[in-house]
Structure formats: C-alpha cells, structure tokens
Write a structure and sequence with these properties.
heterodimer; A: 302 residues; mainly alpha; 11 helices; B: 332 residues; 14 helices; 78% helix; 0% strand
Amino acid sequence: MSTVALSPPIEKRIERPGRLVLLLRYLRRNKGLALGVAILLGLVAFTVIGLMTVDLKQAYPLSVAAKKPPSWKYPFGTDFFGRNLLAAMVVGMWQTAFIGVFAGGLGTLIGVVLGFISAYFGKWIDATIRTVCQILTPIPVLLIQVVIAGSLDKRDVTIVTMALIVVLLAWMGPTLVIRAQVLTMKERQFVAVAKLSGVSDLGIIFKEILPCLLPFIAAAFVAQVFSAVFAAFYLAVLGLGPLREPLLGNIIWAAQSQGAFFNGWWWWPIIPSIAMILILGSLALINMGLDELANPRVRRSE
Amino acid sequence: MSLKLVIKRLLFLVLVIWAASTIVFFIPRLSNRNALRERFGELARTGGFSPADLEKIIASMNQQFGLDRPLYEQYWTYLGNILHLDFGYSLYRYPTTVAELIAQSLPWTLGLLLVTTILSFIIGNLLGAVAAWPRAPHWLRAFATPFILLTGVPPVIMGILLLFFIGFRLKWLPLGGAYSVGVVPTWTWTFFFDLMQHQILPALALIFGSVGGWVLSMRGMGVTIQGEDYVNFAEHKGLTGGRIFRDYYLRNAMLPQVTGLALALGTMVTSAIIVEGLFGLPGIGTMLNLAIRANDFPTIYGIVLFITIAVAVLMTIVEFIYPLLDPRVRSS
C-alpha cells in the first residue's frame, strides 16, 4: 500500500487591499471629492512652500514698490500700499486657514456637545437648547457679527477675535444636526442592550453612539469650516477685519476703497478673488463628497 | 391653517424680533467703546474746544438721549422705539434719523433684491428640474452643470469677476455707481437706460451667485419625485410629457423649494448688501459701508435691526403663503 500524499489544499488568499488603496479607489469613484481634496492639497502646498520661501515682511504695507502689475519679480503684482501680493496671498491663505479650522473646529465641538446633551437628556434641557437654536436661526448671522465686530475697539480686532466672533453664532447648525442623529441612534437596539448591561451614560455616549456619528461630525466640520471662512471673508470685505493684516477679504476691501478697477490696477482685487474661489470651491466639493460618504444610500460602491 | 398655528407663528416672530433687538442693545454696551465720546473727541481734535467743555457737552448729550438713566429703563424705551421702527439719530448726519436714511436707500435695495431673487429662484428651479428629468434633451440637461460649479462662489466675488471681464476688459458696462457721473436724475428714457446699465452687473452677480443652490436642491428633489407612483400613473394614463412635467413633477418638487426660499432670504439680503457696497449703488449696503467707515454706530445698529426684522417678517409671510400652494397643509 502506498500512500499518496495529498497535496495540501491550495488556499486561495483573498487579497483585501489596504485602507489607503480603498480610499484612493473611493476617491476615483467620487470625482467631486477627489477634485476638492486635490485643490485643497494644492492650496496647502502653496501656503507651506510660500511660508518657507517668500519674505513674509512683504505682505505688509510699504515694503515693496507700489502698484506694479504682475511680472517675473512680483508674480501677483504689488498693491497701492506697497505690499507684494504673492507674500500677501501666502499670509492671507494661512490666516484664512487658521480662522476656518479654529472657528470651524470650535463651532463643531460646541455643536456636538450641545447636540448630545440636548438629545440624550431630553426634557427641559432639550426644549431650551432647541428653542434657542430655532430663535437664532432666522436672524441673519452676518449682521449680528457686524454689530459685534463694529463694537470692538479696532486695536482689539485680530485674527483670533475674528475667529471667536464667527464661532459665537455658528454652533446652531451642528447642534441641530447632531441632535437629530443622536435622537435616532438612541432608539437603536444596541444602545438599549448597552443600557441593560449597565453601561453608564458616558460609556454609551463615547463607546456606542459617538463612533457611529463620526461621518456626520466630519461633514458638519467641513460645513462649519466653509461657513467660518465665508463669514470672516464677508466681515473683512465690509472693512471690519484686522485692517493691517493681509486677510483675503481685507485686500478686496482695500482694493475697492481705492477704486482699483477705475485706476486700472485689475490684479489687486482679482488675485484674492481667485484664491477665495479655490478655497471655497474645494470646501464645497469636499462637503458634497462627504455628504455622499455619510449617506450610504447614495454612496457609490465598486 | 388653523388659528392656533397662526398665533404660534406670530408669537415666534415676536420672539425672534425681541431676541435680535436684545442682542443689538446689549452687545455695544458690553464693549468699552463710547460712540458719543469718540465722535466729539474727533470734533475736538479738529475744531479745538477744551476738555472741560467736551465733558459738559457729552454730559448734556447723555441727558438728552437718556443715556444717563438706568440700563433697564433705557432698555424699555429702546424696545418701545423699535416697535415704531424708531432707530434713533445718525451720529454723522445728525439730525437725520436712521429711519430716514433707511427709507432713502431702501427702494434701491428692494428693487435689486426683488428682481434677482425672483429670477434666480425661477431660473434655478427650472434648470434643476430639467437636469433631473430623464426625458429632457441632453443639451438642456447639460446646461445646469456650470451653474452647479458656481455654487461655492460668493456673489461678491462673482461681482469682481464680472467687473473685470465685462466692465474692465470689454468695457461694455460701467464699473460702478448708480448712474453716470454728471448725469442729473430725471424721468426720461435716457436716464432710465443709464440707470439700468449700472444695475445689470450687480444683478448678474447676485443671480449667478445664487442660482447654483436652487439648481442643486431642485435636482435632488426632482430625482426623488420621478420614482413616485403618481408620476408613473400619469405616464400610464398617457398624458403628454409636458403636462406631466408641469403638473405632476414640477409642482410637487417646487413645494419644499418655497420653504427653502424662506430660509434663504437672510443670505440673499446679506449678499445683496455686500454686492451693493462693491458696486457703490446707493442702497442699504453702501449706507452700511459708509456707516462702518465713519463709526456711525446708531446707523449700523439701526440697519442691522431693520434688516433682521424685515427678514423675519418675510419668512413668516412665506410660511403663511405655503398652505395656499399645498392643499394637504391647508386642509389639515
């Protein structure tokens, strides 16, 4: 009797691609999101490289020859006050990013906390938070921000105060979104099971509900960054920004005050406008893309 | 709509106006800026009267405007004044009242806002509906895409781009102002055409800046409505495509858009104000711009409060119109 050695069964390994590959594949399907991320990365690269290579003093008045159109020496030209617009764009972009991330992050954080408190504890707390949100929502936020920024001493207006003014009236959106999501989560069975097994309120919030909400929080964050950048831009265009800083809206305000188009200095308002279009456009694309990611019903599968 | 709902809505309106007035009353009082002192200090520097006299003038002014009375008393008077739309005097153009300033500039803003809101609402909704309608010709559906790409661009930047391309490069339209320099306003056709020429670019900026949003939300609505039973039923009844589009598809998809219109009013008004400032049209936006430049606080607060109240009232009106459009809400 000879035994025939059976060859071991060929184990067919199913290649599960890495997370990065999956992410890249998803980006290929969701073209809007990919384009938004690409533009945003481009802007980040511009700002970072600019911060390292460009002389940042030139972003402030009286540092270079005034009113020079774009040339090899000054790729974006210089303005009436003797600012190199390339340096001004680098600093302005960095400041815009700071306001966006700081105000957007803080607004989202407040929104998440209030949304959770409101939905999880219910009763009169919920009623109060909801009513305050509902009353504040119809009031045009920009106008109240105008009152706050206008009441401040001009010396007190800095990039940080701008961000804080923006946050002050920007938490209602995320609060209502997160509240609605937590309300539906709360009724799910896994939460009931956790509750019956004696998990504490905080445990349920952090271990059971919060992880499920991450896509919504991410979407709310991007939306908040978008509206913070927008609000800070509008305030600056109205001349309520920190006037010395080369914030993008400030540059447009200054160009408009000096009648840039009437005097033929077209590059002065155009350069910051294009920068703003790229920033807001990329954020809008990412926002729409994340909406799709957060909503599995419309998510594109392979 | 039941009487109870009407009363509830009106109460909410009063609450919103009260909240806005209270915020506008207390925020300036939290800051250390004193508008009167700043204004008279400026006059003192340029005109030259002694500091002792300055204090006397400020004291008498404070008494005249009741600023020396306790805060709660001031608050009550203030709330009473708001009810008659009395926002006090302009600091820079004293004795003109803020209400008079607003009345002067309101027609300009109202005209621009009305035309652009209606046009962008109609154009945006039609484009969005067509973009989601499978039977529409391909070229017509593709028409919506460029507008969707414009969604993220604020109207004021749209205005700068239009100024650059159409006003500055092509020189087709003027670069700003309400009418040409040196022209005297008269009731003639030539003046009217001059006026309209100056209104085209700001109007286009506002329309291009807001159409995208309508296209996007309407397309979303349209896609969900296509699968509805009543649309299928209408098709099987053999109704013509145009009839289904108009009466079954568009009408139902429009309803949530009307609510959207109420919610978008605040954004529309603020965009209009900023675009007006950019183009130097003599509306409320330019008035606000000038007031901010001149530190004319009562005018800033008055304009802000007026717009807030106007937006809240308009939103309530839109909500009252809604049941007229939707029979289901009317009957329940």
